[in-house]
Amino acid sequence: xxxxxxxxxxxxxxxxxxxxxxxxxxxxxxxxxxxxxxxxxxxxxxxxxxxxxxxxxxxxxxxxxxxxxxxxxxxxxxxxxxx
Length: 83
Known about the structure:
alpha+beta
């Protein structure tokens, strides 16, 4: 495999070439990597569930706050219209 790189900038354009001989490197995972990956995935799933619960709780509180604001605005408007 051959790769060429072309650089253009403030100065003179540059070109570089690289040739790779042989096959691609073999990627071997350690035997216990699957256990670590599974444990990490389980941890992330649990965290995801917890965070979704926090988001739902925050949405509920925001909805309640908006309701209170609407009620207070209605009271202020009613009080000002009586003046």
